[in-house]
Write a structure and sequence with these properties.
The complex is a heterodimer of chains A (about 375) and B (about 425). By secondary structure, chain A is an alpha/beta fold. Helices cover about 20% and strands about 25% of the residues of chain A. In chain A, helix 3 (about 95-100) packs across helix 6 (about 190-200). With about 425 residues, chain B is α/β, with parallel strands linked by helices. Chain B contains eight helices and 33 strands. In chain B, the strands form six sheets. In chain B, strands 1, 4, 5, 6, 8, 9, 10, 11 and 12 form a nine-stranded mixed β-sheet that branches. A seven-stranded parallel β-sheet of chain B has the order 15-18-21-24-27-30-32, with no helix packed on it. Chain B has a seven-stranded parallel β-sheet with strand order 16-19-22-25-28-31-33. The chains are: A alpha/beta (about 375), B alpha/beta (about 425). At the A-B interface, helix 9, strand 13, strand 14, strand 15 and strand 18 of A face strand 14, strand 15, strand 16 and strand 19 of B.
């Protein structure tokens, strides 16, 4: 599910869908779900996209990065299309599947894994499937206990009984009655899914969570599968910022970067990062193709960024291909990709994170 | 019928013995360069950037690393339905079987490969130079002059000319004579080992000289074409071109990449150098790290200090470690509180804590002074250096070493310690 936009992530999705947001220097949101599928030996994958899919389509230009260049299966991208039966956009997650139901009908695989494309996590779906079969569940929902101080009002929250059967499911509750949230990852038998989606479509209902999970929670056996590993959703500015900053912790880097299996992404053929005289980097991630002349602290610098002399960048995220002129000060900011920050600029997020979107002309480097 | 205007044949079978331990397990074209690249990436990227999409790579010496690197050519966009990259090792024949005995002999043994693409021109390249060159411009020059053979040359200082094959040309760049490593050179145009042949000329020359032992382009084929009166032209190239055949020239070429605006610029948008990169994550520099005048590859973690160095991908540099003027190749782990001066450390090596490399007076290397010189310390791939030892200048370590191998915890300058061999 890669179609979504979200007002919580403000200006950053003017340019792209949430799941195409760059993550941790070298990746994009969708890489995590796609790599998990590839690593779980799922070799038939459909990506549903709708909102501002430019960056996403560019990123998915070839399926070989995730090893989906297969004769059997492979990667399919479904965008809304005018057909004899339908002229609508995807009106919801269930509708996206309904409009492309023939893909599901013509498949022969017994199970379907559904994952949102805007979550950062590592998972072997085979373990999830084993659990699903063992519980004889109709649908299994991946859940995570959030720390008590996290506001869960933008997630779906669940309550389970001792057998892990989900008894309550609330979508985006005003006052949450549980701190266990749904991670937006499901497994369901293919025929079961087709049947539910078809019924939904007949009743003009479009949302997988509201119209399937919540409506059917007493009729069907829906189980929760709790994960303890790292999982993070990037669909709000604060979460996006925090998720990126999490990668400054060695245990998170070790988990995602060094432990098998790997996360894959599109290869950009950029040269190594270069540090000139005057560069000083503390506790930061620097990506390939960067040229650094200034000071960087506690930040994540994405690919192909140029940082001029005497700059000071602190606690910030600089997205791909940004040119930062000399003597610039950037603190508590997210700088949008392909921006050009003029020399001697000053940006500081005073109350929280500031998003910097610049449209200056690029100096010729 | 398939028809390609120009196909390339890339000679990648040589050992490059002057690179010492760095080519004991891999062919020279597969040696790492500039952090994340391998030497062969440069000619291969030049090919695709010049629009040459059919490349035969001739391998012979230690081809495993090279084969895995090239694969089906995906990184260079050379995975094609027609053409693309093909690895061409020597093979058994019904009457006789032989290794590639010379540069031209290797090409001769692959006449069938070239024939199958029905080319107009054949470009002969070698896989051991660092340069960016548009072969299409060279081909235009070849066509304009109505040449049968065009040889790329570059002007070198007169005093160095005696180390090269020298072309003597008239004012139109037609070659009138040539000399191999002459005492008193009559020109300073050195052959770069890059040739464009008309396919007919090449085929005829190879077939007529087939019985010549050690058939070589410079020694036999070019003189043969010249004697027959075929028009030979010299194409002058004035860009960056570096032969990295010796440890010092390899070290220098790497160090040139860290200049503010390097003469050889990897950051150009329109002549990208492609390579197979398996390591994707960004690099991490810790609170205590210091990095100056260096380039660092993906996924490396730096907790120490790095000055004037080229660091590959997936390298770890421990706390308090100081690295100066060194080259560290992919996936090498360096412990804490080490000191490295002018060291070249090959891939997948482990250096434990408190190790010092490149310490002490310079003395000539005891076994191979012509390879290990200029104060460079060489550490071969998959080596292990135990905690707390000191290694001097012009010395070499290769293989899994233990504390017993270092008398008094040190290996003095000029010593060779090679424990890797066929026995592992």
């Amino acid at each position: 599910m890669a179609g979504g936009n979200n007002h919580r992530i403000k200006e950053l999705t003017q340019k792209r869908a949430v799941c195409a947001m760059p993550i941790a220097g070298s990746y994009r949101g969708i890489d995590f779900a796609l790599s998990n599928m590839s690593n779980s030996h799922i070799n038939k994958v459909a990506v549903f996209t709708q909102y501002n899919a430019g960056s996403l389509n560019e990123h998915l230009s070839s399926s070989k990065w995730w090893d989906f260049g297969r004769k059997q299966g492979g990667l399919r991208v479904f965008t809304p299309a005018l057909t004899a039966e339908s002229n609508a956009w995807y009106r919801g997650t269930a509708d996206a599947i309904a409009q492309n139901l023939s893909f599901l009908k013509n498949s022969h695989e017994p199970y379907v894994v559904i994952s949102s494309g805007d979550c950062v996590y590592k998972m072997d779906y085979n373990k999830l499937l084993e659990y699903h079969i063992e519980k004889k569940a109709d649908i299994t929902v991946v859940c995570k206990d959030m720390p008590a101080d996290v506001n869960v009002d933008r997630y779906g929250t669940v309550k389970m009984n001792e057998e892990c059967r989900i008894e309550e499911f609330e979508e985006k509750p005003v006052v949450a009655r549980s701190n266990t949230i749904s991670c937006g990852i499901y497994v369901v038998r293919r025929r079961q899914l087709i049947e539910m989606i078809q019924r939904c479509a007949e009743e003009d209902r479009y949302d997988f969570v509201k119209d399937i999970l919540i409506r059917y929670k007493n009729m069907k056996s829906i189980y929760g599968y709790k994960i303890k590993e790292y999982w993070s959703n990037i669909a709000s500015v604060d979460d996006y910022f925090k998720t990126n900053m999490d990668f400054l912790h060695p245990e998170i880097r070790n988990y995602f970067f060094r432990q098998y299996p790997d996360i894959y992404s599109r290869v950009d053929d950029l040269p190594p990062a270069k540090y000139n005289v005057g560069a000083s980097i503390k506790n930061s991630l620097i990506s390939s193709g960067c040229i650094v002349n200034g000071k960087v602290e506690d930040s994540v610098i994405f690919k192909k960024t140029y940082i001029g002399n005497n700059c000071y960048i602190k606690n910030s995220i600089i997205l791909n291909d940004v040119y930062i002129g000399d003597n610039t000060h950037i603190e508590n900011c997210i700088v949008e990709s392909r921006g050009t920050i003029r020399a001697n600029s000053y940006h500081k997020g005073e109350n929280g994170i500031e998003i910097v979107v610049e449209h200056n002309d690029r100096f010729v480097i | 019928m398939v028809k390609k205007e120009m196909i390339a044949m890339l000679l990648a079978g040589g050992q490059g013995s002057r690179l010492g331990v760095f080519t004991s397990k891999v062919a020279k074209p597969a040696v790492a360069f500039g952090g994340k690249y391998r030497i062969i990436d440069f000619p291969l990227s030049n090919c695709i950037n010049s629009g040459v999409d059919t490349v035969g790579v001739l391998t012979q010496y230690q081809p495993l690393r090279l084969n895995t690197h090239i694969g089906i050519g995906i990184p260079w966009d050379l995975d094609r339905n027609i053409g693309g990259v093909t690895v061409l090792p020597p093979y058994e024949k019904s009457v006789n079987s032989e290794w590639y005995t010379g540069t031209a002999n290797a090409i001769y043994q692959n006449l069938d490969y070239m024939e199958s693409y029905n080319p107009e021109y054949v470009l002969i390249l070698s896989g051991d130079h660092i340069y960016k060159m548009d072969y299409e411009v060279m081909l235009d020059f070849h066509k304009q002059n109505g040449a049968e053979v065009t040889i790329a040359v570059m002007p070198v200082p007169m005093e160095e000319a005696k180390r090269f094959g020298i072309m003597i040309t008239d004012k139109d760049r037609r070659i009138t004579d040539f000399e191999e490593k002459p005492e008193n050179p009559r020109s300073n145009l050195a052959s770069m080992g890059i040739y464009i042949f008309n396919w007919k000329t090449l085929k005829e020359a190879l077939l007529s000289n087939a019985s010549q032992p050690g058939l070589d382009f410079g020694k036999h084929i070019i003189p043969y074409c010249h004697e027959k009166g075929a028009p030979l032209y010299a194409y002058e190239f004035n860009g960056y071109w570096k032969d990295v055949g010796t440890l010092s020239s390899y070290w220098e070429a790497n160090m040139e990449l860290i200049d503010i605006v390097p003469e050889f610029n990897l950051y150009e948008e329109y002549w990208k150098i492609y390579t197979k990169s398996e390591i994707l994550p960004p690099q991490y520099l810790s609170c205590d790290s210091v990095v100056e005048r260096s380039i660092i590859g993906e996924g490396s973690e730096i907790y120490g200090q790095v000055y004037n160095s080229v660091i590959g991908c997936g390298v770890t540099v421990g706390e308090g470690t100081v690295i100066r003027d060194s080259i560290i190749m992919n996936e090498t782990q360096i412990g804490s509180h080490c000191e490295l001066h002018k060291a070249i450390v090959a891939e997948n090596t482990v250096i434990e804590d408190d190790v010092k490399l490149g310490i002490g007076e310079e003395t000539e290397n005891e076994t191979d002074p012509h390879i290990y010189n200029n104060g460079i310390v060489a550490v071969g791939e998959k080596s292990f250096i135990p905690q707390g030892v000191t290694v001097g200048k012009n010395s070499v370590v290769f293989g899994v070493t233990s504390a017993q191998d270092y008398a008094d915890g040190s290996l003095p300058s000029g010593k060779t310690l090679i424990k890797a061999g066929d026995k592992q």
